[in-house]
Design a protein that fits this description.
The chain is α+β, with helices and mostly antiparallel strands. The chain folds into three domains: 107 residues, Elongation Factor Tu (Ef-tu), domain 3 (Beta Barrel), CATH 2.40.30; 63 residues, RNA polymerase II/Efflux pump adaptor protein, barrel-sandwich hybrid domain (OB fold (Dihydrolipoamide Acetyltransferase, E2P), Beta Barrel); 75 residues, Helix Hairpins. Helix content is 30%, strand content 30%. The protein contains three helices and 15 strands. A seven-stranded antiparallel sheet has the order 12-11-15-1-10-14-13, with no helix packed on it. The chain is elongated.
Length: 308
């Protein structure tokens, strides 16, 4: 008798469990709060763009005109340097050897010049026609000129070697701060354009942010409108921006590293804004978000005044 009712009861119980599981599985899980709240834009109408912080002078990739072993690094990370300060040096021992030979040739040329000038002065004291011929006198004059030319040539060769030595001393082209050092003592420094610069320098007395504005929104940009920078990861860190310039050539959108592959299907207008150093805990090369106030689209005018 019990077996007669047990199976239907178990079946009904199983159907109930299955139904409850299906209903529970179809319920949407509660939405998790984002770890960082999105930034609140202070403008009712705006355009937004991703930006990357750079020095006021832009980031200058320091290279070397001559490849060679790095024998000295005279700058440190974050160090302020003046224009003309030595940043690093390339091995110049081969040129130093040539310089010694060149200096010896100058002394040899000086002796030859003194000898020819002495012969010339002695000939000038003699009577032409009796003690010395005109031809001999002219030859002595030519010998003195040739000796002087030899001395000038020897000095020019030494000056050339010194200039080649100076080319292996890499100096700061502007006053600024060392942002990055990509070479180590004893490494071989390659000349030319490198994926990783040997050293990065920039004038960080004022920071700039290079903003990529989508070409579809470029017509809405107004240089005189307000703009704000928001730090990624903490939307409470923000600062107003000063308009600096528009680079009026619309380019394929690059990677924000500045040296990555491009997206040729998207083109952007690059706008430069400035802000004071120290107002935010940000660094050159850091990615940020920028919001620029614009007139409402319904009332926006196409007119846009550019500086000549």
């Amino acid at each position: 008798m019990i077996n007669k009712y047990l199976l239907p009861i178990l079946a009904i119980f199983g159907v109930g469990i299955a139904t409850a599981a299906v209903v529970s599985g179809n319920q949407k899980p509660p939405l998790a709060s984002p770890p960082v709240q999105p930034a609140k834009v202070p403008y009712p109408s705006y355009i937004a763009g991703a930006g990357i912080i750079e020095a006021r002078s832009q980031n200058i990739a320091i290279g070397t005109p001559v490849s060679g072993i790095v024998t000295a690094i005279n700058a440190e990370w974050g160090e302020a340097v003046k224009k003309g300060d030595i940043l690093f040096q390339i091995d110049d021992r081969d040129l130093q050897g040539q310089l010694l030979v060149g200096m010896a040739r100058i002394e040899e040329a000086k002796a030859a010049l003194a000898k020819s000038q002495n012969y010339l002065r002695f000939g000038q004291d003699l009577t032409v026609g009796s003690s010395i011929t005109k031809l001999d006198m002219r030859n002595r004059q030519f010998d003195a000129v040739i000796a002087q030319t030899g001395l000038d040539s020897a000095k020019a060769q030494v000056d050339q070697i010194k200039m080649e030595i100076e080319r292996r001393t890499i100096r700061a082209p502007i006053a600024g701060r060392v942002l990055q050092i990509g070479v180590r003592l004893g490494e071989f420094a390659q000349s030319g354009t490198l994926a990783t610069p040997l050293m990065m320098l920039g004038d960080a007395s004022e920071l700039h942010v290079r903003v990529d504005i989508d070409e579809n929104d470029a017509w809405r940009l107004r240089p005189d409108e307000a703009a704000v920078l928001v730090v990624r990861g903490n939307p409470t860190l923000r600062t107003p921006l000063r308009f600096v310039r528009v680079e009026p050539y619309v380019i394929p959108k690059p990677s924000l590293t500045g040296q990555g592959t491009e997206r040729p299907d998207v083109r952007v207008l690059q706008v430069i804004y400035g802000f004071d150093t120290g107002v935010l805990p940000v660094y050159v090369g850091q990615q940020v978000d920028v919001y620029v106030e614009t007139p409402p689209i319904a009332g926006a005018k196409v007119a846009f005044t550019r500086k000549p």
